[in-house]
Amino acid sequence: MSAPPFAMTAGTVRRDGRAVLDAVDLEVAPGDVLAVMGPNGAGKSTLVKALLGLVPLAGGRTEIYGVPPGRFRDWRRVGYVPQRLPMGGGVPSTVREVVASGRVARQSRWRPASAADRAAVDRALEAAGLTALARESAHLLSGGQQQRVLIARALAGEPDVFVLDEPTAGVDAGNQAALAATLRDLAGTGRTVVLVAHELGPMEPVVTRTVELEHGRLVRDTSSPADMRESA
Amino acid sequence: MGMLEYDFMRVALVMAVLIGLTAPAVGTFIVQRRLSLLGDGVGHIALTGIGLGLLTGTSPVLGALVVAVLGAVAIEVLRARSRSGADVALALLFYGGLAGGVLLTDAEGGGGTSLQSYLFGSISSVTVDDLYVVAALAAVVLGVVALFGRELFLLCQDEEVARASGLPVRFLSALVAVTAAVTVVIAMRAIGLLLVSALMVVPVAAAQQLTRGFRATMLLAMAAGVLSAVAGLAGSFEYDLPPGPSIVLLALTLFVAAVLGGTLVRRARARAAAGRRIPAVRSGVDAEAEVLGG
């Protein structure tokens, strides 16, 4: 049997001596569409970053497809969508440039972008409804459009598992519906999705499993949001 | 043009083109990483290398190269290690480098003139051998940009996404810093250590007023860099001015022109977009807010 996309055992993250993630056990199975929920400051973003090895664990262990993040090499299988597109020093990037950078894990340093790379970028732009905006400066788009750019970047890499950190924060209803449609397509092709959300909104029917964090602890793990409402 | 009759000017012009191409190419990444003053710091540190080179009777350029690269790596380590203490640590490094350089060149006895020429540039003293060294270093810098450009783009865009894409983030960060250090040494003879980083930053700041993409910004910045370097050098020859400051002031003039040009272009685009999208809105100010913020 192949290893699951993510498996964390007693994962603990400390910041300034305080446990922001406290002995979390979490295994994400292939094909799961998992929503990580909870109030602000509960440790949702920290959890997904720890799953990816972006935040070091103070205790416990975590694995990506059976390998600790530090030794994991198959990063093309993972697509990470951060909360926002940083401005940096203000050098502009076109939407297409940002999306194309999602291919980097699949590209060789020694070869220019291939026809397959360009086709994947075209498909990602199309799927996110960004084709018409491809030549625009990504930083001048609205928050919802920028979120779509970040998702398209992950799509361009054609990963097996998507990790989205608050993809709906500050996003209008239209863009939320578009996001839900994209997630449904991903789930339909058997991809694994882990997403951080304050509330699910239009994504609710797509989500197959929900975990809830409070003060860094996993307090609830339910197989669908409907179950969670019953237990609440 | 009369200046091409002089050997040293032909050498100097080739060097100006190389500097104009390399400094903004590296600078685009530096600016996006919010390290605009990195070149400045490396320049201060490199001065100690020049002092060491002069004192030991070896090549000042080689000394500057070695110390600048070590300094750049030290800066990168400090930056990555601590978010809060790095600021002061960097300042210590910069002042140490500057003071060390002044002390060492003084001890060497060469005195003010040689120090002056490294601080503010002295392109007329450049030899053909210097040019070969600079050309080789420029090839290395442009090679790094071409080979690692895609990875550096993502690194400068978002370091966490770069890590989650499996990129060697620490190596790439050091690569940016070291490439900047090499660029400082390339430009040092012509522009001087105190003004070197201007050519890494100012053409990029000018280009980004007018462009929508990263690659376009880099190419336009390189064009602005070459224009500033060549025209600044020619102007300094014609009017007997110091070349470094002439080049930098010309680049700043291009920046001001780009800011004005960019404002006009954005206004025109906003008006055009307002005409297309929301014909009911007449006010140009509202229309601009719609496009830029909406």
TrEMBL record, chain A:
Keyword Ligase on this protein?
A: no
Source taxon at top rank: Bacteria
The cross-references to PANTHER family, in alphabetical order and at most eight, read: METAL TRANSPORT SYSTEM ATP-BINDING PROTEIN TM_0124-RELATED
Q: What is this protein called?
A: ATP-binding cassette domain-containing protein
Keyword list, A-Z: ATP-binding, Nucleotide-binding, Transport
Under the heading Gene3D superfamilies, the entry gives: P-loop containing nucleotide triphosphate hydrolases
A Pfam entry, by short name: ABC_tran
| The organism of origin for this protein | Actinomadura litoris
Question: What GO molecular function annotation could you give as one example from this UniProt entry?
Answer: ATP binding
Q: Taking every annotated instance into account, which residue ranges of this chain make up the domain ABC transporter? A: 1-231
